[in-house]
Recover the amino acids of this structure.
């Protein structure tokens, strides 16, 4: 019910009810209902009707106030994300670019003077710098494209996978709902970050040709869900010894922050399976 319609009802409904009661009072109940009691009943009916409609107006005003506060919060977050993206682009990304230029020049000089050891060392530094640059630019993209916003879980995951893997040879499939009951905005951000870290690891290290991402809920328990990221790459060796890897530690910590269980497996057939399972009863 709109606020304008509620205001009209505040005028029309009391008048109609009181008018109807007064008509009955002075016709059917004329010789039954005493005048003084009739006046008290009229006043009581009027007060009840106005109170009921006023409650609806107050609830509507409170709802509008909450919506305004939420819009202001979202706008403030969006502006801060844009500011951080601008700082990353204007200061850090450009500094990384110029550092890469100088390192490439130093590499050429090392080649010119025949210093193979220095050249190899500079090659490693340049490759590391490129990884950092890619991560920074990915962060800029993430800041400019709010992972929560108004898009659904499926749309956000699909958009990221499409943009991240378009220029690679990796095919992907996504199985996720439009919405997931019980999954808060902060939890969606954590899952989105886990997805980014996992896909980055696959692209850099796994030599995979296919990635499957699945987010599913349990029908009988809306608060329970599983998040699967699976690839057909070379695997990670023994997961019990490799989980110390920094990227895997980050994912495990994010899963822990969600109150979910994190597991990592490399099947004998190859590939890597990351499974995050949230049990609301834990």
């Amino acid at each position: 019910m709109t606020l304008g319609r509620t205001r009209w009802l505040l005028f029309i409904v009391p008048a109609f009810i009181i008018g109807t009661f007064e008509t009955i009072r002075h016709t059917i109940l004329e010789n039954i209902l005493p005048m003084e009691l009739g006046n008290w009943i009229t006043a009581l009916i009027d007060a009840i009707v106005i109170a009921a409609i006023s409650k609806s107006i107050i609830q509507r005003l409170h709802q509008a106030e909450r919506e305004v506060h939420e819009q202001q919060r979202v706008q403030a977050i969006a502006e801060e994300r844009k500011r951080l993206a601008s700082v990353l682009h204007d200061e850090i990304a450009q500094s990384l670019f110029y550092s890469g230029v100088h390192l490439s020049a130093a590499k050429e000089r090392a080649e010119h003077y025949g210093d193979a050891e220095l050249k190899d060392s500079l090659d490693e530094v340049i490759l590391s710098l490129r990884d950092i640059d890619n991560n920074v630019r990915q962060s800029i993209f993430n800041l400019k494209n709010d992972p929560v916003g108004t898009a659904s879980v499926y749309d956000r995951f699909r958009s990221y996978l499409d943009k991240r893997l378009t220029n690679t040879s990796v095919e992907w499939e996504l199985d996720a709902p439009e919405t997931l009951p019980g999954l808060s905005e902060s939890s969606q951000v954590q899952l989105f970050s886990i997805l980014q870290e996992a896909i980055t690891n696959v692209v850099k290290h796994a030599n995979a040709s296919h990635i499957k991402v699945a987010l599913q809920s349990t029908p009988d328990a809306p608060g329970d869900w599983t998040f699967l990221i699976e690839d057909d790459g070379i695997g990670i060796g023994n997961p019990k010894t490799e989980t110390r890897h920094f990227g895997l530690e980050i994912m495990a910590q994010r899963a822990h922050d969600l109150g979910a269980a994190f597991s990592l497996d490399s099947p004998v057939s190859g590939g890597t399976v990351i499974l995050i399972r949230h049990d609301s009863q834990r």
